[in-house]
Amino acid sequence: MSDPVRITNPGAESLGYDSDGHEIMAVDIYVNPPRVDVFHGTPPAWSSFGNKTIWGGNEWVDDSPTRSDIEKRDKEITAYKNTLSAQQK
Predict the structure, then answer these.
(1) Helices and strands (H and E) in the chain: how many
(2) With contact defined as beta carbons under 8 Å apart, do 89 and 45 qualify?
(3) Concatenated DSSP letters for 5-29?
(4) E-state strands within the chain
(5) Which entry of 21, 59, 67, 74 is 20 to 30 Å from 47 by CA?
(6) What b/e string do you get for 38-61 counting C-beta neighbours within 10 Å, with b at 16 or more?
(7) How far apart are CA 89 and CA 86, in angstroms?
(8) Which residues lie closer than 8 Å to 66 by C-beta, 6 or more apart?
(9) Whether residue 76 has pLDDT greater than 80
């Protein structure tokens, strides 16, 4: 069973307006966690994201990922990939 897809909207960018005058916002979609080749290790824990999304509701709980959480996680993933790359050389 695959993990849930998380849709976030921190600092969303406006894409314009529809014919009814509603603003259309950009949405970032993140799949939690990433799939990794088991022969090359396991990624660091996804503790910075948590799984406390209210599905079916119209609001996010206070500890949903923020832009800084996403940037921090991106740095962790990049560092992990660099470590794997260095080990393979």
Answers:
(1) 1, 4
(2) no
(3) EEEE-TTPPEEEE-TTSPEEE--EE
(4) 5-8, 14-17, 23-25, 28-31
(5) 59
(6) eeeeeeeeeeebeeebeeeeeebe
(7) 5
(8) 10
(9) yes
Mean pLDDT of the chain: 63
| Domain total of the chain | 1
- pLDDT classification of 47: cutoffs 50, 70, 90: very low
CA distance 65 to 34: 16
CA 47 to chain centre: 12
The pTM of the full predicted model, rounded to 2 decimals, is 0.32
Positive or negative, the CA dihedral 81, 87, 88, 89 is positive
Q: Spell out the residues 6+ positions from residue 35 whose beta carbon is closer than 8 angstroms to its own.
A: none
Mean pLDDT of 47-72: 58
Amino acid of residue 64: S
